[in-house]
Amino acid sequence: MSRKQKRMLRNIIIALSLFLIVLILDLVLKNAYKDTFPYGIASFIPNENYGWLLPFGLYFLIYIFIGHNVLRKSVINIAHGQVFDENFLMAIATLGAFSLGIYTGITEHSPEGFDEACAVLLFYQVGEWFQSYAAGKSRKSITELMDIRPDYANLVNGDLVEKVDPFIVSLGSIIQVKPGEKIPLDGVIVLGESSLDTKALTGESLPQDVSIGDNVISGTVNLTSTICIKTTKEFSESTVSKILDLVENASSKKSKSEAFISKFAKYYTPIVVFLALALAIIPPLIYTFMGNNNMWTTWVYRALSFLVVSCPCALVISVPMSFFAGLGGASKNGILIKGSIHLERFNQANVFVFDKTGTLTKGNFKVVEVNPIEKKDEILKLAKIAEYDSIHPIAKSILEECKEEIPLGYTLENVSGKGIIAKKDLDIILCGNHKLMDEYHITYPTVEAIGTIVYVARNMEYVGYIVISDEIKPEAYKMVKYLNSIGARTIMLTGDNEKIATHVSKCLGLKEFRANLLPQDKVEEVDKILASKKDNELLCFVGDGINDAPVLMKSDIGISMGGVGSDAAIEASDIVLMHDDLSSIEVAKKISKKTMKIVFENIVFALFVKIVILALSALGITNMWVAVFGDVGVAILCILNAMRARVKEYSKEWELYSQM
């Protein structure tokens, strides 16, 4: 608990203890010693005309002690033109009850309402504390990610090392990071080697070994040795800054449900105030015209009870609290959702489109076949020349497979969606798919293999081919099975050929796939799916965040896998899966479903109870104690129900996947 929450809880305990002492003493005197103390505590003062002053003073002191901030907020809000809020309702209802108690004390010598007025504000503060505590627990789940924020950077300036604010470190500066310190900015290691704790960003528990030339991202913790890093981004553009911005604004984008409740409360509160005023004036006026002048106290009391129960706290607090708890529960499972609107929409998502490489598959390509085998070294060497400067996973697998030294000085030309052409003097090397071979009219064999076929030709003569295959992520099977079980439409987009796409699709149980797509074709395919889907369908695109930014932004909901290292992913996606694990999609879906169920439960329960008690209060069947339950009791129950959205029941499921 925060200091403020502890102080508030202490004040509540003190006020509640004093309140119970006064209340119990008054009840005991009235019932056990009614002959001596017919008016309870008021009978301590011999003059019955002034007896009401003692209970009034005791209860009012407790009232001011516990509720002074409510009265202050009410006055401040009125001064700013915000009249109709819960503070105003509480102030009017409780001060009205005290006024009623003073009136009955003077006229009947038996004050009624002091205890109830005090109880209303006391239990209202109990509800406020529950709200604060619940919000704090949910906020903690989200702000635990704030631990990645670096406090300083060790800027190297010649022989001196100066501790400075990360904001002032410019691009290309050299910073020093000692063991135990957070890396403050993205960069590349220029001196030293070490191990990094990346758990806060990736969920990976094993340290990552890094050395000179390796890229490092801010927010990770240096573990073993001092390293020097050349910054490649300023702090405002670094990974840690992007994630912190996402976290800090997670609760700012309101869902439709929250927006509706806010609008509902705006009109609801003034309506019930005027209804309570009408309840206090119209019925007793009718009785007065009928000759009965003794009904004013009764109907004012009913109106005050009506005001108490009509306070929209349960709705105004519990609905945003449910979403906040859901966002907190998601963060606890390594799922960053940019706002409650995306949490609400993700519950409705029923069309899931996946990029294949790096999302459904590991992206760890390996050379599994080289043909003809007698030319293996030559084929790999030629392919290495062509792919030498490429960062594509397929190129990396070729570079890893070929250990031979290669001649340099080739001019490399990337032909989008086809391959690479390497030229040096009269030597021309073609390395790519069948489209590249067709373009240059090179005869090549039809290969029946599961994987990516890379054809190699030299000086317009076919040399051979390389088969490179990718491995399906183990958690992808269960994730697709889950989506199919809830009736979702599952689609895979890939640049691979029809055979590979068919193989992966059948293995996973995907309902549809699109193959042979160029990078720009993926955007067009998503446009087609968006155009063909039904009005009640929402499209969710899941990509690895490397070059999927345009598609992530076009889709109804964009999810980036392991996008913490990609600025584009953080900017474009609505949900970021920190753990780079497909099982998080099922977790997020269950959290969103549970959150929306809780929101619905809270709205129905709060409205039902309030309408019933409002009607009973207006008819005089219930007293203000029941009204207190209708307000504070319902609010507390709704808050406790909302907190179920952050229960960590999905963490074991993720741990199971991570061990596979």
From TrEMBL:
Topology with respect to the bilayer: Multi-pass membrane protein
Entry keyword Cytoplasm: no
GO MF term set: ATP binding; ATP hydrolysis activity; ATPase-coupled monoatomic cation transmembrane transporter activity; cadmium ion transmembrane transporter activity; metal ion binding
Instruction: Give the transmembrane region(s).
Output: 12-29, 49-66, 267-287, 299-327, 598-618, 624-643
Which residues belong to any copy of the P-type ATPase A domain? 149-248
Q: Where does the protein end up?
A: Cell membrane; Membrane
- One GO cellular component from the entry? plasma membrane
InterPro entries for this protein: ATPase_P-typ_cyto_dom_N (IPR023299), ATPase_P-typ_P_site (IPR018303), ATPase_P-typ_TM_dom_sf (IPR023298), ATPase_P-typ_transduc_dom_A_sf (IPR008250), ATPase_P-type_domA (IPR059000), Cation_Transport_ATPase_IB (IPR051014), HAD-like_sf (IPR036412), HAD_sf (IPR023214)
User: Which SUPFAM superfamilies has this protein been placed in?
Assistant: Calcium ATPase, transduction domain A (SSF81653), Calcium ATPase, transmembrane domain M (SSF81665), HAD-like (SSF56784)
**Pfam families recorded for this chain?**
E1-E2_ATPase (PF00122), Hydrolase (PF00702)
Q: Which UniProt keywords apply?
A: ATP-binding, Cell membrane, Membrane, Metal-binding, Nucleotide-binding, Transmembrane, Transmembrane helix
The main location is: membrane
What the record says about family reads: Belongs to the cation transport ATPase (P-type) (TC 3.A.3) family. Type IB subfamily.
What protein name is recorded for this chain?
Cd2+/Zn2+-exporting ATPase
Which organism is the protein's source?
Anaeroplasma bactoclasticum
The lineage is: Bacteria, Bacillati, Mycoplasmatota, Mollicutes, Anaeroplasmatales
